[in-house]
Design a protein that fits this description.
Length: 146
Amino acid sequence: MKPRVRSMSSYQHGYSYVEVLIATILIAISLVPIMDSLHTATIGGGIYESYSGQHYRLLSKMEEVLAAPYGDLDAESIAVGSSTTPTSYSDAAGTPDRRLVYLAAYDIDNADGDDEAFLTGTDAGVTWVRIEIEGSALSLESLTTL
């Protein structure tokens, strides 16, 4: 009897060890950048949470200051006399994420023509308010009137 000749395709029923090894290596190599991007996203989430919390603390303090009687704000801005000195509306020293409040009389119409908003020719009944987180770049500014 004559031996049967089998074709090469009849012997291949699955993946070879080399093919499985190459696929595993490709998956492992592609996981490195995927995991790195996830790490960056988790760090960004923490930063956003901190920024968001500080922003709402600034808004809260701004609402508190703007709700005060205008006469009190005006008297405080005159007593301090500078747009760079924190007022008594600021949080106590040593408070975490301390909010500093600045008040100053404001020259809204620049009638004196000197382009100085705080030094000369300030308008009666207009007060500038700035609130910032100590040691950060986050701040809010507003004007309030009688």
